[in-house]
Fold this sequence. Notes:
Helix content is 52%, strand content 8%. By secondary structure, the protein is mainly alpha-helical. The chain has one domain: ACP-like (Non-ribosomal Peptide Synthetase Peptidyl Carrier Protein, Chain A), CATH 1.10.1200. Strand 1 (2-5) and strand 2 form a beta hairpin. Helix 2 (23-36) crosses helix 3 and helix 2 (23-36) crosses helix 5. The radius of gyration is 16 Å and the shape is globular.
Amino acid sequence: MASITGSAISFSAPALRRSQAKKETVDKVCEIVKKQLALADGTAVTGESKFTELGADSLDTVEIVMGLEEAFEISVDEGSAQEIATVQDAADLIEQLVEAKA
């Protein structure tokens, strides 16, 4: 949502991203993704990494989600799982689910 005040335009941050996961969560998700996709040690995986760009197909994505569920002791519903496209998406969802479980 944009608002105009004088000559300045501002955008609300929540429209850009729901939340921002902690670095530790993103790092752990990166490691799980590397393991599930059997990526080479030197392969760079960051929060912005898209699963498809890392070579993941739909079955790989299901296995990644299962690995995340086990590692973080959470349950991801199918609808939420289908919305995960990047490592950051996964980390953000994990933190939301962990908070809701607490």
